[in-house]
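Long-time lurker, first post. I've been practising inverse folding by hand and with some scripts of my own, and I keep getting stuck on stretches where the structure tokens seem ambiguous. Below is the full token string for one chain I'm working on. Before anyone asks, I'm not after the true native sequence, just a reasonable design that respects the backbone. If someone could post their per-position residues I'd love to compare against what I wrote down in my notebook.
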């Protein structure tokens, strides 16, 4: 990875990924792109790119001399259920363009899958790397198809595709883009702003989560991994913790004892959460490329509350 182009760079992951990549590989070696330009980073190369425009993607990557494409643009789970056709067209159209352009220009390729690629018939606990994947959401359908397509481009064309299945990601820089696990970010904002939070996910619903610094390190590590050691290429299970809303509330109460949580369940997002695993098994990522998460719930909570407390209220 020397010259990296990133799609969907203004999203929850992209906005922090760009900063990390620029600090590791040099500001001028990372091209950020997104369909919108509002809030675009001004401290390095940025271009407007709609990922459904494969020709423009090719031109930008070629002109930049990119050797790596990190494809982040997608519609997330809760939004995808509201607009399933848009989700299919964006998630599959953007991915296909990314793979084709990478193949044409000989680039290394990364894209994240998700725990949304699992479904109600998947084993719920310690979900294995290889298991039943019959998701019931459009997001999940596009993620499973995407995992298979990335494997196909590797086997058929020798394209160096790599990827992980991310759990819910928790971060304080950019707000999440409409996923089912967004409550676990929102709860920290509301704890600081209002001292209370109404959860749309039920008290006893477990889902996997990870703090953003661990997610960003996982992206760099899987891309830098020795290909000879990779048995899998794409969609490695990665996770740092699994908790239910009442546990994250208890972790916050250690810092803000008066913090209160109540529940007003959103049936759509609850149904999505119920179809996902309680906890996934990351042992393939650990053994094949040394995946490691540094933050558990307590360490993440402390850091989130400190970092959000330092953020100007106007940017909430
Ligand atoms: P996000 O919704 O925060 O950001 C997506 C970005 O894509 C936005 O900046 C948006 O403007 C951009 N975009 C939308 N349509 C576009 C288009 N047509 N062309 C170009 N850009 C477009 O998403 P994120 O959380 O940063 O997720 C990035 C990837 O990681 C996605 O593939 C997502 O499925 C995956 N993922 C995220 C999480 C999570 O918790 N955030 C968990 C698992 C997997």
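-- Answer (accepted) --
I ran through it position by position. Result:
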């Amino acid at each position: 990875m020397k010259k990296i182009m990133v799609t969907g760079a203004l999203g929850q992951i992209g906005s922090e990924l760009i900063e990390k990549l620029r600090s590791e590989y040099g500001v001028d070696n990372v091209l950020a792109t997104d369909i919108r330009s509002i809030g675009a980073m001004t401290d390095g190369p940025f271009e407007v790119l709609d990922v459904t425009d494969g020709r423009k993607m090719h031109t930008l990557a070629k002109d930049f001399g990119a050797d790596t494409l990190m494809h982040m643009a997608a519609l997330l789970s809760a939004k995808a259920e509201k607009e399933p056709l848009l989700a299919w067209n964006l998630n599959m159209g953007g991915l296909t363009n990314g793979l084709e352009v990478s193949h044409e220009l000989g680039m290394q390729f990364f894209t994240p899958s998700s725990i949304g690629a699992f479904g109600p018939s998947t084993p719920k606990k310690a979900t294995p790397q290889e298991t039943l994947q019959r998701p019931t959401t459009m997001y999940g359908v596009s993620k499973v198809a995407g995992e298979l397509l990335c494997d196909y481009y590797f086997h058929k064309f020798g394209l160096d595709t790599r990827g992980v299945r991310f759990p819910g990601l928790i971060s304080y820089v950019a707000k999440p883009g409409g996923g089912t696990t967004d409550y676990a970010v929102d709860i920290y904002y509301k704890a600081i702003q209002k001292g209370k939070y109404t959860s749309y996910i039920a008290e006893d619903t477990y889902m996997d989560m990870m703090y953003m610094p661990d997610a960003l390190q996982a992206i760099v590590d899987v891309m830098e991994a020795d290909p000879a050691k990779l048995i899998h290429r794409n969609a490695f299970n990665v996770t740092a913790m699994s908790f239910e809303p009442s546990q994250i509330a208890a972790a916050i109460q250690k810092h803000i004892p008066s913090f209160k949580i109540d529940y007003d369940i959103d049936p759509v997002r609850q149904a999505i959460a119920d179809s996902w695993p309680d906890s996934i098994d990351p042992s393939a990522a650990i053994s094949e490329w040394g995946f490691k998460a540094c933050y558990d719930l307590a360490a993440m909570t402390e850091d989130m509350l400190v970092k959000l407390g330092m953020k100007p209220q106007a940017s909430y």
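A couple of notes from the structure itself: The longest strand covers residues 30-34. Residues 7-8, 10-14, 34-36, 49-52, 72-74, 76, 90, 112, 114, 166, 168-169, 176-177, 179, 181 surround nicotinamide-adenine-dinucleotide (CB under 6 Å). Happy to go over any region you disagree with.
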